[in-house]
Amino acid sequence: MNAIAHPAHVHTGALQIRGLNKAYQIEGRDLPVLQNIQLDVRPGEFVSIVGASGCGKSTLLRLIVGLEAEYNGDILLDGQRIAATSLERGIVFQDHRLFPWMTVSQNIALALKNHKLPQAEKDRLVAEHIALVNLAGFENAYPHQLSGGMAQRAAIARALINKPKVLLLDEPLGALDALTRVHLQRELQRIWVQQRCTVIMVTHDIEEALYLGDRVIVMDAHPGRIKHEIRVELPHPRDRASPKLQGYKEQLLEELVGH
Amino acid sequence: MLPLLKKSRGLLLPLLLVLAWEYASRQDAAGAYAFVPLSAIGTALLEMLGNGELLVNLLASLARTSSGLVLGILFGVTLGVMMALSSVANRLIGPLFHSIRQVPMLGWIPLIAMWFGNGEFSKVLIVSLAAFYPMVLNTYQGFSHVERRYREVGQVLVLTPVQQFTQVLLPAALPSIATGVLHALAFAWVTAIGSELFLSSGAGLGNLMMNAEAGSRMEVIVLSVLCIGLLGYLMTLLFTRLSRHLLRWRNLR
């Protein structure tokens, strides 16, 4: 329950997805969104998911975080079936979703609302996470005073402060300009190396998927299913310009576009 | 010099009106009766400030407006929240509320006077009803349009229903509620004066006007009208300032 007291070790945060099927009801008819998804994620692994729009990758994340409770099959976190949201799982959405009526530190502190920690300890954690995402000095800024990249950093801090076993990233850098994106990718890498929680990231950006992921899952649409996966055998932190990464990129492009 | 001019340009039109008024009052006897000279209004002001008559009536109207406003806001927000958060409550109360709301405020006065007499209770009831309608409508609007993406964040952070209400729904609905209060304030003030005109007992600016009419004291009527306008303007100004501070998190660029 209290994830803060037991910091996430690399041996927790194993995700198993078994025979997952999900359909939406459209005018009384079942529209399949995900079909027979099988996926095993090791504790502390970084998995990237790429695929055409409509392949259900965002739905998959919503299911794992617990925002959609109805599905067939099993999604197990350390053996427990996921049925609702929990502080063991954090998510960063494409839109930062900071509450506009709260300052940066209030937004981040809200995630600790239901922890029975002394206030001083909570303040310390908030300050620590603000520093982690390099937002020191902006504690009392309102979201509309931040740039897109800064707001997304705050959202990342909010998701990390509970020390989740699994961090879900739903195109977290998709709305940012190219320069900020490259910068935040490096930041994500640094933070992940430091925290080592299990991460599943959905993205449109092939380079981003390869740069950060231990594994890249390629999904196909209508209905959404896993088509292919690539293991990126490179240690972290990585060099963006590495020729090996280029090789993987061509392989992935071939998989996504060519036949 | 220039900034001062810029700041006071809102006074230009009233000043022109006052000049035209004074001009009209100096034309003939009929003009002097319909448009009492400014000097007569000034004398009346000094007289009524001196014997405390103006202050007593003014405070009576203000007290009536505030108590009616507070009641209307409390009940209005409560009902608006209920209708927005519970579809059962909405279906149960909605039709009744929307038909009752079609009856103009002044249309209630005869009924309320018959039921509760023409005392303080009836007047406050009328004022609170006037504040109640815009509060229900705007609160309902605010709470039923909270974006799903924000409610989902509350879910992801596993907030309790009470926390979800205080941390997410209420602040998200606050701009709409503030708009409601601004409308309620205007309605309450106007209705307070109206109820005093119709239920002529006790003190109040409306009563002051009625008595002045009976004694054909035009300058007192004009003075009351000026007070009503000015106070209404000041209250609106004050609340706009307050809500701008409370909602300073909004991006108004």
From TrEMBL, chain A:
Gene3D superfamilies, alphabetized: P-loop containing nucleotide triphosphate hydrolases
Residue ranges annotated for the ABC transporter domain, each copy included: 15-248
Top-rank taxon: Bacteria
Residue ranges the record marks as coiled coil: none
Keywords: ATP-binding, Nucleotide-binding, Transport
Keyword Zinc included in the entry's annotation: no
One function term, GO molecular function aspect: ATP binding
Family: Belongs to the ABC transporter superfamily.
PANTHER family linked to this entry: ALIPHATIC SULFONATES IMPORT ATP-BINDING PROTEIN SSUB, TAURINE IMPORT ATP-BINDING PROTEIN-RELATED
Protein name, UniProt field: ABC transporter ATP-binding protein
Native source organism of the sequence: Pseudomonas canadensis
UniProtKB/TrEMBL annotation, chain B:
Sorted UniProt keywords: Cell membrane, Membrane, Transmembrane, Transmembrane helix, Transport
Entry's transmembrane regions: 36-56, 68-88, 177-199, 220-239
InterPro entries for this protein: MetI-like, MetI-like_sf
Membrane association type: Multi-pass membrane protein
Cellular compartments annotated: Cell membrane
Family from the record: Belongs to the binding-protein-dependent transport system permease family.
Name of the featured protein: ABC transporter permease
Organism, scientific name: Pseudomonas canadensis
